[in-house]
Amino acid sequence: MTDTPAARAVPALSDEAFLGHVADRLAALPAVSAVTLGGSRAQGLHTAGSDWDLAVYYRGPFDPARLRALGWEGEVGELGAWGGGVFNGGAWLTIDGRRVDVHYRDLDVVEHELAEARAGRFHWEPLMFHLAGIPSYLVVAELAVNRVLRGTLPAPRYPEALREAAPPVWRQQAAMTLRYAKGAHAPRGQLTEVAGALATAAAQTAHAVLAERGEWVTNEKRLLTRAELRGLDPLIVSLSPDPAALRDAVSRAAALLGLPE
């Protein structure tokens, strides 16, 4: 069925019928082994206007052209188009009047990162829209919190080895971020750069806090709230371009985040 503006204005299917229809179409794509629902809808935190986050787990060669050929309105990216790494691309679509994101997940990569996480190992990657970037175990977190719609996937518990290994890595990054801001940006009165560093360090520290708790993180949308670090907000609001004030603000941020200067 071809999408038209009129058809998109009012969804024709119930949510469950819509989800089943889309999952069936995605699961039928060559190389796809499983399809999941993620994001706020998988965790019961969505609103009526929330988009739908789906992921296709494939093994071997996956061709985005097959997804494009389904005829859904939107943009279908190539593999690696979203920066490469573990978060290796996807599509932004409109289906039956609903906004749908489809993420590509290479099962060989996911299984490797699962084994690494269980051994307490991970690496950091930059990713658009994420202040602190992402840990490679993000794809493992998705296995734990997403709802499997088609196929079979593991549902890992948070590895104890990762709980021990991840927090000091994140805290070191946060401390270095603040140290550079205090030494390079604050003396020049660079308010914007200092504000950005405080926000980044807060996100990095939040990753450490949640790793200590053994709580999975899949994005930054509620990261500071979950880590109870919203106390940094008033400090950022009060920033001024005075070098001495900026240096003091960095010191206060370090204290709030429990970081060494």
Key phrases:
261 residues, alpha+beta, Beta Polymerase, domain 2, 2 domains, six-stranded mixed sheet, two-stranded antiparallel sheet, 11 helices, 8 strands, 47% helix, 16% strand
Walk me through what this model shows.
- With 261 residues, the protein is α+β, with helices and mostly antiparallel strands.
- It folds into 2 domains: 5-150, 2-Layer Sandwich (Beta Polymerase, domain 2), CATH 3.30.460; 160-257, no CATH class.
- It has 11 helices and 8 strands.
- The protein has helices at 5-9, 15-27, 39-43, 64-68, 107-118, 138-145, 160-185, 191-213, 223-226, 232-237, 243-257, and strands at residues 32-38, 52-58, 73-76, 90-95, 98-106, 124-125, 134-135, 147-150.
- The strands form 2 sheets. A 6-stranded mixed β-sheet has the order 3-4-5-2-1-8, with helices on both faces.
- β6 and β7 (134-135) form a beta hairpin.
- α7 (160-185) packs antiparallel against α8 (191-213), α7 runs antiparallel to α11 and α8 packs parallel to α11 (243-257).
- It is elongated, with a radius of gyration of 21 Å.
- Approximately what portion of the residues adopt beta-strand conformation? 15-25%
Q: What is the CATH architecture term of the largest domain?
A: 2-Layer Sandwich
Strand order of the largest sheet: 3-4-5-2-1-8
Q: What oligomeric state do the depicted chains represent?
A: single chain
N- and C-termini, Cα separation: 60 Å
Count of separate DSSP helical elements: 11
**Element pattern in H and E:** HHEHEHEEEHEEHEHHHHH
Outline the low-pLDDT stretches.
Answer: none
User: What structural class is derived from the secondary structure elements?
Assistant: alpha+beta
Q: Helical amount among residues, as a percent range?
A: 40-55%
Mean pLDDT: 92
Tell me, what's the shape? elongated
Tally of discrete structural domains: 2
Number of β-strand runs = 8
CATH class of the largest domain: Alpha Beta
